[in-house]
Write a structure and sequence with these properties.
With about 375 residues, the chain is of the alpha/beta class. It folds into 2 domains: about 200 residues, Medium-chain alcohol dehydrogenases, catalytic domain (Quinone Oxidoreductase, Chain A, domain 1); about 140 residues, 3-Layer(aba) Sandwich (Rossmann fold), CATH 3.40.50.720. The protein contains 11 helices and 17 strands. α11 links the parallel β16 and β17. α4 packs across α10.
Amino acid sequence: MIPKTMHAMVLTGHGGLDKLVHQKDWPVPSPGPGEVLVKVGACGVNNMDLNARTGWYGSTVTEGMTEQVALEGAPAGATDLGNWNREEFTFPRIQGSAIAGTIVAVGEGTEPDRVGQRVMVDPVLRDEQLPFQARGVGSIGSDTDGGFAEYAAVPASSAIQVKAKISFVELAGFPVSHNTAEEMLARANVQAGDKVVVRGAGGGVGTALVQLARIRGATVLAIASAEKEAEVRALGASEFVARDVEDQTAAVVSVFGRRGVGVLCDVVGGESSMEMLSLLRRGGRFVTSGALAGPFARVDLREIIYKDLQILGIASPEIETTANLVRYIEAGQITAHVDRVFPLTQLREAQRAFAEKKFIGKLVIQVSEDDLSGCPVL
């Protein structure tokens, strides 16, 4: 029986961690037409949660996502504090885009036999009438309520059944990070034999990039903090450069040679991201999905023009990308490296730990107990 109220961590406005408030009797949503109601088992923590809460997406914010911004919110005087679509948030809002759980009810027009399915939720809200790469018009947990609560109503098409014996905690480590990574590699056309540099290889998207690039047969050089080297190599990186070396570009050149890189995957941003374009060979691809070290960088246009480079920005993976991930998961080809698990009531603590960046892979909020005994398998 579905209760009328639930526990939820509710975002009450842009700002610091104090804007996240635990509510014990929040109304359980009802699934509308074309929706399903998911009993949330777990929900991953991602950069977009902090970006939206703090107001970092605002166009007048010029600094990166520093620990101070992550904990206290955007600088005083920042304006246009909308989401990545540059529209204003509405509050209160339940965040949490990386949902894993069980379908417990369906809305009008949805097959009733979906009740009971264990699912991973694709976080992107799409308008299928728009062209390819323009369909992503929003995100669960930003434009609609998400998974930092006991129940979430989501589009039925976004709730993808996973037939594998895998806990909700691990399953919640895949949405957002892994489908972003897979979309980056797909659009950059990474193939066997490519030399790929992953900048920011210790986080959720970075660890996913390492694994997924190796599945495609690429040789991966990972850049991350020195203490993460062993774990990043275990995920599939053949080469490693410590983030704090004096000259990252020179360190990569010593491994792959000058202009020897086919694809540069960047989830960090900042001034040095554009400096690393010199690593790319002719026809190389620079693909980015993050700017946490800073949203601005100077670029030498000659690097792009005279080497026929491609520059790709990734924010809204296609639904087919998430379907690919499910196939990888069901085949046991990839894992979500979950570093730590927090209960729902400790979302503030989880976001604090996320801001400190002293973890590898994923931080996950466990919302309810998980029973794998009846888990379907292929």
